[in-house]
Amino acid sequence: MNRGGLERLVDRLREDLIAVRPGAAGAPHDAVARVVLGAVAEPGDGVLGRMVESLGAAESAGWILSGRGATELVDALRQESAPSSRELTAGAARWRPRIDDAALARSLAQAARVGARLVLPGDPDWPVGFADLGPHAPLALWVRGRSSAVVASPSIALVGARAATGYGEHVAVEAAAGLVDRGVAIVSGGAYGIDGTAHRAALAAGGTTVAFLAGGVDRFYPAGHEALLGRIAATGAVASELPCGAAPTRWRFLQRNRLIAASAGATVVLEAGVRSGSLNTAGHAATLGRPLGAVPGPVTSPASAGCHRLLREFDALCVTDAAQMAELVRGHRPGPAGDDAPGSTHSSQRALEALTSHERRVLDALSVRRSRSVDELIRATGMASGPVLGALGALDATGLVARAADGWVRRRPE
Amino acid sequence: MNRGGLERLVDRLREDLIAVRPGAAGAPHDAVARVVLGAVAEPGDGVLGRMVESLGAAESAGWILSGRGATELVDALRQESAPSSRELTAGAARWRPRIDDAALARSLAQAARVGARLVLPGDPDWPVGFADLGPHAPLALWVRGRSSAVVASPSIALVGARAATGYGEHVAVEAAAGLVDRGVAIVSGGAYGIDGTAHRAALAAGGTTVAFLAGGVDRFYPAGHEALLGRIAATGAVASELPCGAAPTRWRFLQRNRLIAASAGATVVLEAGVRSGSLNTAGHAATLGRPLGAVPGPVTSPASAGCHRLLREFDALCVTDAAQMAELVRGHRPGPAGDDAPGSTHSSQRALEALTSHERRVLDALSVRRSRSVDELIRATGMASGPVLGALGALDATGLVARAADGWVRRRPE
Hints:
The structure is a homodimer. The first copy, chain A, is α/β, with parallel strands linked by helices. Chain A is built from 17 helices and eleven strands.
């Protein structure tokens, strides 16, 4: 596609995006670029994510659409974390064959038809937790329903196997209803089995529930949950990073799971066999440093074996009722979305509230200007090296501290 | 009792003890003293334990029988850990009213009649793990059956509630039979419910099983388990620190639990409600640093709520089958007592067994010779900095790693 084609496409997208974004006029070009990028790349493409972090979405989309070589970007991408020339060339080979302006226009028309809205980083309804995904964060989110539901707080992801037993469904109903009673929003994947039962119980209890899909939000998947997903969108939200028209694939299911784990304050696996996809969501939650719970079941039931594995090998906390699940997000203040400025101040605030006394002492001993070594921290805090290292690890995971050349610094609230 | 009374008593005890001890001639006076002390003190009496640690059993028994005042011992008890004059006076007030030489003689006669043997510290059949109880270690052990069964290794305590469900009994049968298949001896408390089921399944599988009682071994308790305890004694052992004739009391049940936890290589709670006495055994195991496992069950079953509490609050490892239970004592070399000196090699081994997968990966990436930096560990393990630091903190706390000039090293086992 040549420059003229790109400009015409952008003009049309700009018009269409005005229809699908609430108050979108602010930054149409970024929005257009993110829509284009979302159409050509698979979810979680880290090379694209690092390019966007370095160049911005608009310049990244422009380069992809232009057909120019990687060498033209080398000067612009001098940061250590930026993709290499080789990565860009390989990326272009993935992305450029997918440029299809007719399909993109159809996707946007379809989004407008089903009333899907585009939510972008920096919007009040953009989950601050996505920032923890780094270069694997989504570029944009398509949402049907109430987009503020996506940032309802506190929230807990309730996930589990499609092949649920009566026991698992009982656990899911009790968990979702009990959490709704405690003001917690329920995030899940809209699938058969545990996911669907958790969504249904949340709706029945009058709560907010959010389903993340692995394909476009124009076509609800699975088909048997069309009515359920419609009810979820009626009071909560159905969301996806995939553009309308995109079909779910195995890869997209796995990547969808990272959005469930990153947007929720904690993840609880209610019932899962050892091969359940919900263990992938649990893995994302653990990697992101989110609290992870697992509900035990009879050791005679293979349907609970995945939960037991999480308890044994992944340090999941054993949770047996909604009160214990709610404790996983204790300290996360409920409140209307947008009350606090979104972004890292919000998440830093949350992180600060959840600090242990060890973490607080180590944080207080750090400066934003001068780095301190572990030895200096041991002397300054009067703590042993083990607790100091443990606290640094936790603070690092919440983004409150950063490693410097010869030690550690406190990160400035951004 | 005066000195003359004591001497006559000792003479008679000496004769009787020859009948009840295998090769007892070695140290009759110490044996006599321990029998006397066991008859006047309750199990786990720490003041008596510290007196015996300081003065020896013979002098301690002599002082109690003599009726002398605490001031006469003050010079002899100069060690910091020895009981104070006030503690001795209070102790004497507990112990001396119980001196009853006729009852003691009857107890020994009864022991001889039922074929009970006296096992003392230092005997090959004395569990080395009792040393971890410090001043609360038992003074002596009365054993019916094969006293070497008491030190069978590896061994695991399988305990649980009297009020067992069909699920719990199923778990107990599978656990005991599977552990016996793996050469593990089964230790328990001989009670109704989980304990009895575990003993029975161990016997049925042809394994070694040991029951610790809360009263004298002359009268099997509970009465309904007389036949079962007889079968246990026929191939394994029934043991108690209480003299023959002593009735079980609530205190003695709780103290009995410490012997189960201390003699076994690990403790597993198979099914227990929140008030089950087996949680007391689990508490002893945790205090002693023994591996502790708990079998989960349905969260809808109050009979499993104690197990879930152990998983949530006491860092018990989730174990779902005999293979996982056997892993709790992996590395504990079977062998007669005294083969290993207890101490740091033993405890490093234990620490190794308790590692998380993160800790294991970090430990494997470290060398005893060359130090590696945190950055190198991040690269070597493929883990993020937070988990690497967390694992280093935990490994540092257990003494498995040490900080070096420019990084970390694995510590040599001592």
